[in-house]
Amino acid sequence: MTDALAAVPAGKREATKAANRAAIVAAAREVFAEIGFGAASVRDVIRRTGLATGTFYNYFPDKESLLREILDDAADEARARVRAARQGARSLEDFVASGYRAYYEFLAEDPERFELLRRNAGTIRVLFDEPALGAGTDELRRDLEDAVAAGILPAHDTDLMAAAMIGAGIEVGIHMLEREPYDVEAAVRFVTAVFVAGLERLRG
Fold first, then answer.
1. How far from chain centre, in Å, is Cα 103?
2. CA atoms within 13 A on the CB side of 12
């Protein structure tokens, strides 16, 4: 912490720290979307904030941790939307399609986030064992179990199914982002056809 910041009253200091962190995250979203994570440097990010270069390290140890925060923030919102969509489903096809549609629409709706994900899809896949936007396997497993109990889905191995649906959803989403033009509904139709057919095969 700088001497100048230390001299500021505690409440204002915390507000300043929060504003600085938010400015760094916003700048990183822009930079990673424009030139890519691999080509971007900490200096590229901090230059857009008006802050001193060393300020970056008061908030993040490296640019990888910054990318992870951006993805984790996006994942929180994506999971909330996807789960709400699934929980409103009343049929097998609606359960599958509504969740994927909510996820893919989320990926595509914000031009800056879309470009960040599209440009850095390979980096995200390599850097993280489980890409942040694909998190939520446990939530999906619980929703599958609830749908089985409600008679919407046939009984099946919900642990394996959750892993399969998350994995396929991530990869199809990445390929959707890489296509020109991208097509949310085509991606939704594809994964829905695959998993509805598979789940139907499991009916007694």
1. 9
2. 6
- Rounded distance between C-alpha atoms, residue 28 and residue 59, angstroms: 13
pLDDT at 11 (0 to 100) = 81
Q: What is the pLDDT of residue 131?
A: 47
The answer to whether 162 and 153 are in contact (CB under 8 A) is no
**pTM metric for this prediction:** 0.82
Q: Which residues of the chain have pLDDT under 50?
A: 1, 131-134
- Domains in the chain (CATH in brackets) are 3-60 (1.10.10.60), 71-201 (1.10.357.10)
Residue in 95, 107, 88 with CA at minimum distance from that of residue 170: 107
Neighbour tally for 142: CB within 10 Å: 14
Q: What is the pLDDT of residue 1?
A: 47
As given in the structure block, the two tokens for residue 77 are 């919102």
Cα end-to-end distance, the chain, whole Å: 64
Q: How far is the C-alpha of 36 from the C-alpha of 203, rounded, in Å?
A: 46
